[in-house]
Amino acid sequence: MPAERRFHITQLVNEGREELAQLQGVRSGTTVEVGSTLLEHLRRSAELLGQALVHTAVAAWLEEAAAWSGLTAQELAG
């Protein structure tokens, strides 16, 4: 997997972790405000981790297809 792709995936995972870490400090405000903030951070974290999963799956598929076809992953990616 190219270093650029690994870096991008790592960035997405780290951003997702940061979103989850911010949940620890959410304790003040009305129940609705706290609940809304928690849900927003969870949604964003899930979105980032989902993107990382998709990028990882695509990279794995490209490497498998490259091995099968005799081309490089970069050639397949276009």
Counted up, domains total: 1
Query: Can you count the helices?
Result: 3
Number of strands: 0
Which stretches are low in confidence, meaning pLDDT under 50 for 5 or more residues running?
none
Helix content: over 70%
Based on CA inertia axes, which overall geometry fits?
rod-shaped
Oligomer category: single chain
Largest sheet: none
Structural class: mainly alpha
Please give the radius of gyration in angstroms: 18 Å
Q: How far apart are the first and last residues' alpha carbons, in Å?
A: 15 Å
SSE run? HHH
Q: Can you give the mean pLDDT?
A: 85
Residues in β-strands, percent: under 5%
What does this structure look like?
With 78 residues, this protein is mainly alpha-helical. It has one domain (3-73). It has three helices and no strands. The protein has helices at 3-22, 31-69, 73-77. The longest helix is centred in the middle third of the chain and has 39 residues, at 31-69. It is rod-shaped and about 60 Å long. The mean pLDDT is 85.
